[in-house]
Structures are given as structure tokens and as C-alpha cells.
Amino acid sequence: MEYRHLGRTGLKVSVISLGGWVTYGGHVGNELAEQCMKAAYDAGINFFDTAEAYARGDSERVMGEVIKKFQWPRCDLVISTKINWGSHNASSTEKAQNCVGLSRKHVVEGLKASLERLQLEYVDVVYAHRPDRDTPMEEVVRGFNHVIERGWAFYWGTSEWTSEEIADAWRIADKLNMIGPVVEQPQYNLLTRDKVEKQFAPLYEKHGLGITCFSPLKIGVLTGKYNEFKIPEGSRLATATDPFTTSVRAKFDSDEEMKKNIQAARDLKPIADELGITQGQLALAWVIKNPRLSSAIIGASKPEQITENVEALKHLDKLTPEVMERIEAVVKNKPVLEPRRFT
Amino acid sequence: MEYRHLGRTGLKVSVISLGGWVTYGGHVGNELAEQCMKAAYDAGINFFDTAEAYARGDSERVMGEVIKKFQWPRCDLVISTKINWGSHNASSTEKAQNCVGLSRKHVVEGLKASLERLQLEYVDVVYAHRPDRDTPMEEVVRGFNHVIERGWAFYWGTSEWTSEEIADAWRIADKLNMIGPVVEQPQYNLLTRDKVEKQFAPLYEKHGLGITCFSPLKIGVLTGKYNEFKIPEGSRLATATDPFTTSVRAKFDSDEEMKKNIQAARDLKPIADELGITQGQLALAWVIKNPRLSSAIIGASKPEQITENVEALKHLDKLTPEVMERIEAVVKNKPVLEPRRFT
Amino acid sequence: MEYRHLGRTGLKVSVISLGGWVTYGGHVGNELAEQCMKAAYDAGINFFDTAEAYARGDSERVMGEVIKKFQWPRCDLVISTKINWGSHNASSTEKAQNCVGLSRKHVVEGLKASLERLQLEYVDVVYAHRPDRDTPMEEVVRGFNHVIERGWAFYWGTSEWTSEEIADAWRIADKLNMIGPVVEQPQYNLLTRDKVEKQFAPLYEKHGLGITCFSPLKIGVLTGKYNEFKIPEGSRLATATDPFTTSVRAKFDSDEEMKKNIQAARDLKPIADELGITQGQLALAWVIKNPRLSSAIIGASKPEQITENVEALKHLDKLTPEVMERIEAVVKNKPVLEPRRFT
Amino acid sequence: MEYRHLGRTGLKVSVISLGGWVTYGGHVGNELAEQCMKAAYDAGINFFDTAEAYARGDSERVMGEVIKKFQWPRCDLVISTKINWGSHNASSTEKAQNCVGLSRKHVVEGLKASLERLQLEYVDVVYAHRPDRDTPMEEVVRGFNHVIERGWAFYWGTSEWTSEEIADAWRIADKLNMIGPVVEQPQYNLLTRDKVEKQFAPLYEKHGLGITCFSPLKIGVLTGKYNEFKIPEGSRLATATDPFTTSVRAKFDSDEEMKKNIQAARDLKPIADELGITQGQLALAWVIKNPRLSSAIIGASKPEQITENVEALKHLDKLTPEVMERIEAVVKNKPVLEPRRFT
């Protein structure tokens, strides 16, 4: 396994990490979740990502149970969770007013509830799961620093914030002598590149921002499994019942963006074939080639998927400058950076 | 229910909240108090206000018992208490020297005692119940920040402070990189408007001050129940034995201010009748129309009162600009703001 | 009882307080100590002073037992202790290197040990018992602020520091946004006035320094009990075996300073007689007339002494400007303040 | 025993301290370790140094057991440990990514694990065991201040950092109003002088840096035990199996540096003989003569070694200016300080 620093921090994370998004606590049974986490751990993955929102807290519960069962030493692991969407903690939707967002109340109460579900004393990284534009940035920065001071997390990061919001958080943290967000978690893959390669560009040097990306395989499109423009029987997209998957499935046939993406995946296939690797490995290796990336978060509903994904690390060298250029010629989406005199 | 942010914080509070002033722990029996809190909770009220001073701590005890009994999730609720008058914690009046005021000692000891009575780990908001002009503002600001740091409250506010005192607290909090008071709790109603509409005007934009007001119905005068210039039999004013109510009752017949207020209430009746709402609903709706208000704190000794009050929210639209002008023509007390070039 | 603020803090202390210096835990039996504390408490004294050094910790132990026995509410009481001389915590004199002084280690360990002996969660005020010129002022200021942050004290003060040292502590506290020492505890009485009336003069306005003085009766000289230039049989000075008392006794007959002081006490007798009060009451009332004084700490080995001392408060008015001038004419030690343009 | 302040702190440490490097928990049996610690304690040594790395945590375990067994009062002792190399806490070498270094995670987790092994609530001093150039200095400074705030240590220091790194830590600590490293632990002896006497020169006045040195006898060379250019049978160098000792042994015969050092030791023998002290005592006394040194850390596998070393303190006066010059003439390595106008 390759390990990278999480942005400019001293924390080392495996460049591939395992996320518990729609899967653990959701449509993947607890036993399979356990097998996947075990396979990941055995393959050298030390970084496990979850969120209070995933499967209404069940993703955290499952992860907590697995960590406890295998008695993995705490220092072996980097555990992250995300706070913003904890309405399942409330007794009703109307009562959930303060179970969402990034108010000091919810940052404290949300993280406390997460730690109970995880059966942990602390997480390593706590993310602001999306910005909360109704809460002043100073309250957000103070809230996350408060939970760090209390020993419930070592670092805090953001997920799907704009570069302006991240810069603003740093401006306030600097003013208050506090800690700013050390990592952002956006989507990043061959088909979605703008944020990581362009928008966040000024933040890397200035604030040492790290990137942990989700969806490195573009919800599977880049593995080639939709290359026939159809949803394979028995796949997650065919069977899962969470709102996100359901909505993707509903508009699958009419979604022009989806068609364009599948076409790109089809066009990348010859390159993968030529290198003797799977399409998924090609896509994952490409993401990992970006040195700004600290870790690519993969999902898995079967241990074999983890093995295949980790295998990608052996083939990084195959992505030579020439191959990279051929890939660019297919995806045709390389962001153009604007010159900037100062950062 | 409508929910608003508490001033510029990320906390969401129901625009109507329930207070436990002379009632819970006082002349209203515990069973009725329980019914009222339940009715409020069921009606979407998430914000419950009390104080160490109310009924010598019994208001907090009753609230704590009710919260415990119904096992309402903590994140459902926004609980506030107020510190300044805890002489009942002492063994005698003379011994109560440090059970009142806003010294670091009493802020810590008072809040600790309140939390024990409430059976809570923390309140959401702790108020300075009146200013303490014998304690330096820096000690007050440090004291409230200290209890926030220790996890006993998320925010602090003031009750019946002047605008200069609030601005001074912010000046010191800013200097010390601390948190200033996010909310003030004054009296505010159709008959008492100066503070909220004029004195505090510069604080809203500058410090994001929120307002939670007490006495939106002017101790019942605006419900019309004294329209006959008499105390109705069986009413709280006729029966309650707390010092405040007793003193109001004693001077009722000779109080010119009271007569003027009752006359205004009588003059507002035709407007309420015309809109097809009660006088109390008109008065409460008028308060809530002020967007500076975060929450109007009502008292209740019967669950029905809560239902009637919450009903007012359905009629906010009836207070059209034209109706608002007719109301102004009755009360004739609209504050005139002085122009100010800078805030 | 009269209560005053402790310097510029919000804390209220009885203007007469009870100290447990050579007495409690020392030559005064526990039962008498208990009777004295009870008498003091009943007389309205709310402020009890001790130190880790007194009677090798036994003064704290006795005070703790008495507080526990009578179940006095914590908020009734203002308890202070002092840290600097805890060598009795060590297993030998040589091992006591870090059981004395104001290093961060000893401030933390000393106060922890004091709280255990007192059976309290916190004291109200912790004093630096004499300066420690081997420890940098920044470490001292940080140490006392650290124990305040941890909730083990509300305020810190100094005992027998110079005005320059107090000013330096404030300079550093201000720089670090920390809390400076709010009170100094020097000797102050009719015969020793320079520090309180002259040296500390610039600190009262600038830093709001409060004064709690010890020895208001000049170890009894001002009560007139040595007016015959002899040690009365059975008195503490005749019987106590602590090093300080022993050394005073040893040089009693040859001590020119002592003789001068006794002569002054003799000369004050006619004034006391004329006012119809005891010499001790005159001396104590004189100290209390100084508005800079927050509290005068008295010792007592018999409950009657407390009654007599507290009685002095009834006679403050007798010290008219004319009487004050007659007193000055006897003691002839009024400090001359140098003019100062800036403080 | 002589006690010195640890740099500019208020902490007093014995000028000779006992370290548990390759010895306790390692090749020296627990019973001998216990005898050595007891002998040291009885000889007035109050300062015991260990590290998470020593003997994979066993050095801490042994020390903790001995402290517990003899029930030495905590305030008698100054205990230091070092954090940076805790890979033994992990389940495998690959999993140890975050069990080494000075990330916030490892500083917290490492010290927590050390305290558990030591069975202590806190250490007095926690060292950064070597710099971690992959972690930003701000994270390091914040991490050590965080554990101090939580009450797990009173001071922090460095071990084998460069002067630039120490100065940088202070620059950041000053900016953040935090505590900088108060002590550095380098090698220092007659044969290795550059760091202590030259590189760190600007730091003593500016930051009050203290020095605790290891290897004052140059792994025994300066005791004269290798004067015959041979490893004595039964010595630690002949028998210990830790990697460091093994590597020294392996290259002993071919190591030119070693030969030069032994030659110097041989040349110092006549001076020691003339003064009537052992070569080891001469070397140790020479180190202690440097007033910048707070404590020289000795190792010991037999109680007698401690007695001999402590004996050196009686002979400090024998190192007159003339003797010091003769020593310089033998070692010929006196650093030349460059003039500097400002520090």
C-alpha cells in the first residue's frame, strides 16, 4: 500500500481508503461489510470514511462493530466521519431543526452521537459535510476547534465546499489562532476534474489543503459496467433503494450526461486493454497519479472489489506521459488554469 | 411552526417559545406544567426558557422532570436558563452574597446548580439575567466563555441589558478572541417597543444580535382580559402569590400606566374582531412580524393557551401594511430612529 | 457583617475573614478550631483563608473537616489557599525540590494536594504564597491560569509580592490574554503601612488590585496584651511551638522594634478608652476604614475573640476625621506619596 | 546531590539523572533495574528519563512498576518520556504509519500509551524524540501544547533537533501564545561538543533553553574501559543484542573514529589519576561543569555504577581552570564561536 500525508498534516493515510456511503448499514449486509473492511485492512488500507448521514447512522454502527470485533489497535486506523445531516437523531422531521447544519450545537451533538455509534473516544478527522450557509463561518470554525480541543477529533476538514468557503474558514481560523480545515472531500475522477484541478489550485500551497476524493470511478461508469448503455442485472444500481441510487436509475435512459460519460468510458477501454489492466484500475490509477490527492475513497460491496482496486497501485507506472496524453485526448476536459500573480 | 435562527447563530428556534416564569414550579401545579410543555412540544415549539431565579429553582426542576419523563431527544430541544439570582442556593439571605450577580464564581456555581436541577449536561443558551454593574465586563465575558468551553452551554446571551452594555461585552469579547452575547431578552410588545426597535438598532447588523422577547402580551393586557378595567376572578393576577404579581394586583386600580394600556387594548379589539382573530393572536402576530425577533416567549398555565397562541402563526398574513398602519394609529408609540452615519 | 468586593472582581467577601495560620491544625485543638469557624460563619464571615504551608497541611485538613461537618453550601463560602511551600508533601527535605516554588509543576501538584486535604473541588482564590524569583513570571502566570481553566479556582492572587512583581504579572497576563492577580495579601496594620498605602498605590486604579491583609493586630501587639512589655502567661506567644512564634518569643526582650511597637500600642490606649472600645477593636476598625482593603484576616483560638473582633464593625463611625488625626499623631508613620503624572 | 533548574523553567532536576535507554526493559533484568532506580533515588537523583521507543515500551513499564512499588510521592519525582517512535503500538510495521512521527495523532496517542505503561496521570516533561520533518512545525507545537493543556505533561522539549528547528518552534509558539520547547536533549561529552557549545549558543539567552544530555561518557569510552582497544568480556558492548549495540560491536575494530576516541580517553587517564578520581568521574564532572547543562543522563546496569557516578559531584572543584586547560589540550576540539551582534 502507498501512504500519503493528509494534506500538509503529519497524518499518513493509505492512498486508497474505504467509504461506507450507501453500502454499510444500507443495502450491503453486515457480514459482507465486515468482510470488506477486513479485506481492506489486510490489504493495507488504514483509512475508513463514514458520516452521520450514511444509512441514518447505521454505517457508523457497522464500522464501530467491525473495529471492535477485530480489536484493531486504534493507532492502526484513521477514522473519519462527517457532520451536517443527523436528522435521524431527532424524534421527527420537524424536530430535527438543530440536528442538521454546522451550528455549534449540532457539531457538538452530532459528533457526540457519531462517537457513540462508532464506540470510539475520538475520530481522526471530522468533516463538515457540505457547507452550512446559514451559520456564520466563525461559529463553524469555533465549533470544529472546540471538539478538537475536547479530544474528539485530531483534524477537521470540509466536504463539497467552494474554494472561497475554505479560504474564508482559514482567514477566520488564522485570525482566532485556531486550526483551519486541512482536507476537502470532493468528487474527483476522469470525468469530473474542475474543482480539484482548477478551483482548489490556490489552496494547495497556501493552506496545505489535502484532497480525499469520493467517486473516483464515477459511480461505476468508469469501470465499464455500463458500457452497453444498460443497467446490469443484480448490480447496485439495479437493486439499491436509497434515494440517490433510485433517482439515478429512474433517469438512466434519458440522461444525456450519463450517455456522454458512458461513451467516454467506452473510448477509454482500448487503452486499458492495451495496458493489460481493467478499466476500473485505469480510472483509479489516473486519480492516484495526481499528487494533490491524499486518498481516493472507494466503496465496495464485495471483498474482491477491494482486491481489484488495490491492484491498481501496481500499475501506476504504466500511466506514462504518453498514455496520460492519450487519456486526455479521450476525455477532453483538462481544466485551463488562469494565471495568477499572487496566491 | 416557524423556526428562526437565534440572531446570527446557526441555532434554530421556534418563533414561539415557552417560558417558565411565575408559572412552572410556582402557582401552576406540576401536572399542568407537564401538560403545557407537552402541548408546546407537540405544537412544534422546540425552545423552552427558564431561569435559576424562577420559583427559587423549581421552574428548572419541573422542566427537568418533564424532559426526562417524555424522553425527548436532547437534540430536539433548545433549553435556556438565566444566571444572576440564585440566593435560594444559599443557607440564608446574608450568606447569599455570591449566589447573585455575574462574578465568575456565581456564573460557574449558578449554572452548575441549574444543570443539576434540570438534570441536563448542558443548556443551549445561558443568559446573564440582568446586568451586574458591580462586576467588570471582562470578568462577565470570561465567565460565560469559560462555561461554554467546559461544555455547559453553546451560546450566551443577555436579559435586560442596555445597548451600551451589550456593545461593551462585544468589544471585550473581540479583544480577547472570545464569544460575545448572541441574543438579548427584553420585554417587547405593542405597548413597549423602544428597546427593540430603537435602542438595539445598531446591534443587529454589527453583532448579529438576536431577540427573544418576554411578555409579548404585556402580562395579559393585550389579550383583552382586563378590558373592563377589572381583574377577572380566578385569573393568575387574582390568585398568584409571587411578589411581582402581588405588587401588580395591589396597585391595579390606581396605576395610570395600566389604565392607558388597557385603553389601548380596548381600541385594538375592533381590528382583531375584523380579522376574525383573538386580541391575543393579534398582539402575538404583531410581535412576530418583526424580523429582528428570533422568538417570542409565552407563558401558559393551560394547554389551551398554547394552542391559541400558536394559532396566531396562521394569521400573520392578515397583518397587511394597511392593518399595520391602523395598529400604529391606535398605539401611537412608533420609535423614531435617529440617523446614524456609521454603526 | 459588611461585605466588599475582592478588588475589582465580582466576588463579595466579608470585610473580616478568618485565617488558619499558626492556629488550626497547629496549637489550637480541632474542637476549638471548629468552634471558631462556626462562630465566624454565624457572625457573617464568609471568607476563610488557609495555605498549603500552614501546619504542614493540617490547617487545610481541619478547615475541610469543619466545612464538611456543617454541610455549609459551597456558594456560601469563599475559600482561599496559598501555594509555594508544600515540602511536607515530599518524602524528605532533599526530595522536596519541586514541592516548593511556583513552577507549573508545583502550582498544579500543590493545589491538587490542597484540594484533597480541603475535600473541595475548587477554592475561590489561590494565592502565590510569596514570589518565586527562580521561576519566570510567564510560567507563574500560565500556571495559575491553567488551574483556573481546569476549574480548580476562580481567581488568583499574590501574597507579599512587590508592586513591581504584581505589575509584571499583569503585563504578561495582558500580553497572553490571561487573567492577572486580582488581590495581594500583605501585612497591614497601624504599625506597618508602607506597602498598602504607598507601594501599591499605582496598582489600585490600574489593575483593580484588592487587598486582604494579615496581621491587622500586629501579632497581638495592638490589642494591648503586651502593654506591660511582658509575654502574658498562657498566651499563644508563651506556648506555641511553631518556628515563627518561637523566634518572636526568643528575642522578645531584646527586640527594639517590638518595644517601639508596644509603646505605640500603649499610647493608643487612651483613644480606645475614650471611644469605649477595646484596643483591638480600634486597631481593626482603623484597618477596615481603608477602602482599598477588601478583607482583614484575623486569627482566633477562641470563639470569643471573633465576637470581639466583629464587634469592631459597629464602631467604624467612631473613627471620625478628628480621631484619625489623633491616631496619626501617635503612630507618626503616615506614608508620603510621591506625585506621579501617569499610572 | 546538586539540583539545577531545567533551563529557564521553575522545575528543579538533579544534575545527574537516570535514563532507561537500552537498559531497563532491555538486557538488564527487572530486578537490577529496580535496584538501580532505588540506588539513584536514595542518592538524591529525582529525574528519570525514558521514551516510548526504549525496549518497545518495556523501559516505561519497568519504570512504572518501580515507582509504584516504592510508592514514591509523585512530587518527589521528575519523569520524562519521549514521543516519536511507537511502532510497537501497532499490529504490524505497515500498520504503524501513524505510530511514529509528531503528528497531532501520534503525540496524543503516543503519550497516552506511555502514561498507561508508566501507570502515571502525567509526566513532567515530554520530549519530541527527534524532529519530524514531514509534519509542519505548527502542528507539532500545537500537539505538545494540547497535551500540556490536558494535564498530561508540564513542559515539552526536544531531542536531537537542530538549533534552527528549536528557534522555529519558539517563533510559532510565540505567534500562537503557546509554550515553546524548554529543553533539548543532545549527546554531549568531552568528545562531542559542537551542538551544545556552539550551535545552541544563541538559544540559551533568547529562549532560556535547558540541556539534558545523554551519553556523557560516550557509550563508556570515557570510562577508559576500552583503553586497550578491545571490548571487555561480559560488558554490555559484548553482550547486548539491541540493534545499536550490535552495530557498534560489529564495526568496533575497523572504526577509525572509535580508535581516535579511545586514544583521547587514554590520554586523559593521567589527569584523572593525578586528581585521584576515575576516568568516568573526570568525564562526568567535566560535563557538569558546563552551567548550561541542566542534567546529565547516565545509564546504569548495576547500582554501583550510580554510586561511582554520583561521587563525581564531590570532585567538581578539582577541575580547576588549569586542569580544564590540560583537558582541552588533550581533546583539541573546543568549538570556536562566531561573533554575533544580535541574538
From TrEMBL, chains A, B, C, D:
SUPFAM superfamilies: NAD(P)-linked oxidoreductase (SSF51430). Pfam families: Aldo_ket_red. Keywords: NADP, Oxidoreductase. The keyword Glycosyltransferase does not apply. Residues 16-331 form the NADP-dependent oxidoreductase domain. GO terms for molecular function: oxidoreductase activity. Belongs to the shaker potassium channel beta subunit family. This is Aldo/keto reductase. The lineage of its organism: Eukaryota, Fungi, Dikarya, Ascomycota, Pezizomycotina.
